Amino acid sequence: MKKITHLVLSVCFVLAAFSLKAQTFTNYTTSNGMPHLNVNCLAEDASGNMWFGTSAGIAKFDGGSNWTYYTTTSHTGLADNAITAIAVDNAGNIWAGTDMGVSVFNGTTFTTYTAASDGLGNDRVKYINQAANGDVWLGDFSGATKYNGSTFTAYGTGDGLPFGGIDYIDFDSNDDVYMANALSGFIKYDGSNFTIYNTSNGLVSNTVRSVTIDGSDNKWVGTAEGITVFNSSNAVVDTHATIVAITPPHVLNPVEDVKINSQGDVWAGIYVDYLGTEGGVGVNTGGTTWTDYHVADGLVGPVIRKMHIDQSDNVWVATSTGVSKISFSTGVDDAQVASNLFNIFPNPAHNKVTIRLTGDNQNQATVVFYNTAMQIVKEVAFDNQEQSKTIQLNDLSEGIYFVKYGLQVSKVVVQ
Known about the structure:
This protein is mainly β. The protein has helices spanning about 115-120, 335-340; strands at about 20-30, 40-45, 50-55, 55-60, 65-70, 85-90, 95-100, 100-105, 110-115, 125-130, 135-140, 145, 150-155, 170, 175-180, 185-190, 195, 210-215, 220-225, 225-230, 235-240, 255-260, 265-270, 280-285, 290-295, 305-310, 315-320, 320-330, 340-345, 350-355, 365-370, 375-380, 390, 400-405, 410-415. It has two helices and 35 strands. Strands 1-28-27-26 form a four-stranded antiparallel β-sheet, with no helix packed on it. The chain has a four-stranded antiparallel β-sheet with strand order 2-3-4-5, with no helix packed on it. A four-stranded antiparallel β-sheet has the order 6-7-8-9.
């Protein structure tokens, strides 16, 4: 179901090609290439290939029709077929976490590293991510392990991490490491000290499953009771308790994953482990409103594992019953975009934009702003002969908007 209600535009105003943000679900299961329905994790390489970690090995998909499979039978260096975490490093190596260590694929062979032989904190790997400085971090059942290109260094309770291991890892612009813990909140590591943030700091729940950092160093902390947003100074600025609609009487939104696309839209995967209650995914394009998607909308399954946003801003959702790719099209006809009726700048914009009409304005002209739900959020009238106008945007939330005048539709990003 959708929580956003679309306005019905008058017939004389609707253009056939002007349907914003139409979504398409493409599902991948064992019937069309996936080696196992239970997909635990996913990643993308620099060439756009998708890598899926399943309960029956790794699958590589080129986005077309070609699949390649990697198992302990085909590649004896792989530690185990049950893949719990997957990532692609800057050199193109594939890191696959298992319950028996981490295996690294160089394009030809897998090499496995373990706690006993190589210094991992624990062989049971939950999450893998690489920092901008090149360090690869593993979240495991005992804590976190850093690989600096030659050496594994394990951090656990004796170093300041809480009990329960690390489920998720991300990095801010200072290369500080942020970690999710399922019992005690989330943790910042600045290279020397571990600092724990929990309900005493405003976190909605200490059961943290993900922590994702946006381009402004805000932390979107996914918990068992929704998302708490911390700013760059780690002070609470917002809380999102309801992201997807849940079957009553259940109301909590346990967040499994949070991802942010190139436009700053925030995606959250919700899995509610209650009998008769299903999860889904939600997207926030700014403000407090979320749009949610469920199985009824085309999602392959309700048990959300992890998500990935690819180079084209498609959203990939891994579930226990396959993978969904959610693709979006603005539906704006190329001829409309090409119409040179007005210019809008700056873009992206902050608190104001200037619109300059490129032709003669003999009559009063109206420029209309829409949000991504096709709701009119602002109308600006140009007086006769008026060619340029500066428009204040303080009343608009951050996000994507579409500006229409005549047959031209232009996208503007408000930051």
